[in-house]
Design brief:
Blueprint (H helix, E strand, L loop, with lengths): L4 H12 L9 E5 H5 L8 E7 L10 E5 L2 E9 H14 L8 H11 L2 E4 L1 H8 L4 H28 L3 H22 L10 H8 L2 H12 L7 H17 L12 E4 L4 E6 L2 E6 L3 E5 L1 H9 L6 H9 L7 H9 L4 E4 L3 E2 L24 E2 L2 E2 L7 E7 H30 L3 H22 L23 H11 L6 H22 L11 H20 L9 H6 L10
Parallel strand pairs: 2-4
Antiparallel strand pairs: 1-2, 1-5, 3-4, 6-10, 7-8, 8-9, 9-14, 10-11, 12-13
Length: 550
């Protein structure tokens, strides 16, 4: 210990003088100084223990005493006993033991009593140190297995640089497990060098540092494989089981709450009924090739058979985003984690910035291998897509009505029908950019500031068309031609250029129904707002008209 007993007692007296009086505390020194690792910059961690009935704050008070930083924590005997009991009860499932819980208990069990020794020792006796060593060793071993299995998977997927990082993490966790079995249970890895020196096994220590110094060059897959092989051999030598070099023990499995649907050629994946990921052409091909429950090497081979040049990175992305999961045969889901880091779990990337966001054939993506997160909740995304499809149906219907009105010289009917077509096209434009619910039709032109500046010319043209009047065949023909050009401009912008001429023939109407049905299925699954109530009948009929003979 770098501080004498007298110096610690002096610091304790001065610290207690800054706290409210009235409680008799037992006091113990925790942390790196109690472990014998500290240095002049290390803070002094005092834990004050009393038989309080109420819970005491977990958050420490930070003091500055005689040039030293002092942390004061207060806990009741019951709180400490509950923690120690939770560690014992969770020992059978080390993957579920929280790092904070284990760390709090470790600091207590390895603390140095300063006052009220009997009470401190009474609490410590609730979990024998020898038992805690085994629990901590198993906790580290579980994490080492997860990291090394994950590294194995990443190498299989061609992600060698990331595999090296996880191999390094697994190496640290392996040696921490070994050291914990010898009593070196302090969790934070920064003192690992001193722990290995104190463990007294120079052969293990030297081999560990030799492996740590081996640093495969970025992009050197062969060296990454060799490094993992060496680390797995070392892990086996120090007693870590459950990590043979057999990638076929890794299987690709489904994740609860992940749903797939396809519109046109675009594959969409919904995570947890909330988030929509749109897949580019290559990523979509890899996704469609997945047969869940198969070993990872076979899944990768099937993905390669699709013609995608490098299917590993898209599959690795699916894993990172929690769209699929890896399971080690007999060992559960592979969930790698690091100490003192962000908790493990699926990554959520920044939302896509594509504009417009979607088309009638699916969401916009950034490239063939893209797995892009849509910046809308899943139900709003589906509702906007359905509104986009329906707006185009309304446009087709309005153009048909306009054409008939012009043939009969119904000029006022033509004016109103043309405005209906303009508003419907604008609804499609807003929907394609993810605006939902939509502004009322009269406000659409004035709400174009919600959309990117590039849509300005469309807005100007819409405003001009909405002001048109018709009182002759010549004006009517000009209006129809200008309206068709405007509709074409909007559809080109939102990726609806191939939308069927809905009311032209039985075939084009069937094609329109099919486009609508693709979006209705997922919209209904997500309880999204339907564009019209009649859409439920189309859904019930699986895309067919309700009265059509089969």
């Amino acid at each position: 210990m770098i501080l004498t007993e007298d110096r610690l007692q002096d610091l304790l007296d001065k610290s207690l003088a800054e706290l409210p009086h009235g409680t008799e505390w037992a006091v113990t020194l925790e942390g790196s100084i109690a472990e014998g690792f500290g240095n002049p910059s290390s803070d002094i961690d005092f834990l004050l223990v009393a038989r309080h009935e109420d819970d005491l704050p977990v958050m420490p008070s930070l003091l500055f005493v005689d040039g030293r930083r002092v942390e004061i924590r207060t806990q009741s005997v019951r709180q400490l006993a509950d923690r120690l009991r939770a560690v014992e009860e969770g020992a059978a499932r080390p993957g579920r033991l929280s790092e904070d819980l284990l760390n709090r208990c470790q600091r207590l069990l390895h603390s140095h009593p300063l006052r009220g020794h009997a009470l401190i020792e009474e609490v410590k006796a609730l979990l024998p140190v020898e038992r805690f060593r085994r629990i901590t060793a198993d906790w580290w071993a579980h994490r080492a297995r997860q990291s090394l299995r994950h590294a194995m998977a990443l190498l299989c997927l061609g992600e060698s640089d990331e595999a090296v990082d996880w191999t390094r993490a697994g190496l640290v966790q392996t040696v921490k497990s070994w050291a914990a079995g010898l009593g070196e249970t302090y969790l934070e890895p920064k003192w690992l060098s001193l722990q290995l020196d104190r463990a007294g096994r120079a052969d293990v220590r030297d081999r560990y540092w030799q492996l740590t110094a081996a640093d495969p060059a970025p992009g050197d897959a062969e060296a990454a494989h060799a490094h993992l092989t060496a680390c797995l051999a070392f892990a086996e030598e120090v007693g870590l089981t459950g990590v043979p070099r057999r990638a076929e023990r890794l299987t690709v499995e489904r994740v609860a709450g992940v749903t797939t649907w396809q519109t046109g050629d675009r594959v969409h994946v919904i995570r947890g009924r909330r988030e929509v990921f749109a897949l580019g052409e290559d990523a979509g091909a890899v996704w469609r090739s997945l047969v869940l429950g198969r070993p990872l090497p076979r899944v990768l081979a099937a993905a390669a058979a699709t013609g995608v040049a490098d299917p590993g990175p898209p599959l690795a992305t699916f894993l990172r985003y929690g769209l699929v999961r890896l399971v080690w045969k007999g060992g559960g889901t592979v969930t790698p984690s690091l100490p003192l880091a962000a908790p493990p779990g699926p990554v959520t990337p920044p939302p896509s910035t594509a504009q417009p966001l979607l088309s009638v054939r699916g969401a916009a993506v950034g490239g063939p291998g893209a797995v892009d997160l849509m910046p809308l909740p899943a139900d709003r995304f589906a509702a906007a897509a359905m509104a986009l499809v329906w707006s185009n149906v309304v446009v087709e219907n309005a153009v048909e009505d306009l054409t008939g009105a012009l043939r009969r010289g119904q000029w006022r009917v033509a004016e109103l029908t043309a405005r209906r077509a303009v508003h419907a096209a604008l609804r499609g434009l807003f929907s394609a950019h993810g605006v939902h619910p939509l502004p009322p039709d009269p406000d659409l032109v004035r709400r174009l500031d919600l959309l990117p500046p590039a849509t300005g010319p469309i807005g100007a043209r819409a405003g001009e068309l909405l002001r048109r009047t018709v009182d002759s065949t010549q004006h009517g023909d000009t209006l129809l031609a200008d309206l068709r050009a405007y509709i074409g401009q909007v559809r080109d912008t939102v990726g609806a250029g191939s939308f069927p001429l809905s009311f032209d023939s039985a075939d084009t109407w069937r094609a329109t129904l099919q486009v609508g049905h693709d979006w209705l299925r997922i919209g209904a699954h997500l309880d999204a707002q339907l564009p019209i109530e009649e859409a439920r009948d189309l859904l019930a009929g699986n895309g067919a008209q309700p009265h059509q003979a089969t």
